[in-house]
Amino acid sequence: MSIDDGGTSHRQGEIPASVRAQLLATEHWGLLASRSTAQGEVLTRISMFLTFTSASVVSVALVGQATGFSDDFVLLAVAVLFVDAAVGLLTQLRVENVAHEDLMYVTAMNRLRAAYVELDPGVAPYLMAAHHDDEAGSKQTYYFFGNRGTFSHVAGSSMIFITTANAALLAVLAGLLLSLAGSGTAVSTVAGAVCGAAFLAASAIRGYRGYRDVWRRFTPLSPTPPGAE
To answer: How many domains does one find in the chain?
Structure first.
């Protein structure tokens, strides 16, 4: 079967390189738009969480001044912090999901760049983002100048930010609960700090395991050549 196009016939399956490039570019723009939308949405969620937490803490402080920081105030503070912590954990879950989605979009666009290089190998030296859809390729796309920026990118990420905020909330909440149970200030403070640190460590381990599991189950089409990492 052939299709006549201005006197030029193309057998089915013999798609011109220009058409392939247009199809790949369309998919690339779709991935870029989805990535931008996801990032914008998660930043809005974090802003909403911080605004909600700030407003609730100010409200609790005003109530504390009005009640002389009585036992009723502590009960109210615990209830408010429970709500804050619940919202914070849900926000952290969404941030984690978006982090995985972002890795998915980066990997997909790396795969498309591999297709561009296949169409025109001469463009490869001009691509600073990777055209290999494996872990090494994703790291190159996230940081063009090598893996030295990996730690700082992780430490400064939205995931670490929201996890640290939640750890602080849970530390204060645990301290208040122990205070209600009759523990002294010193014991409540130390126990709260331990709870916050444990949550931070557990979240970091969970996030790392999730990241490793992604690459363990994923099979790249254009892996980085040995020695090129």
So the answer is: 1
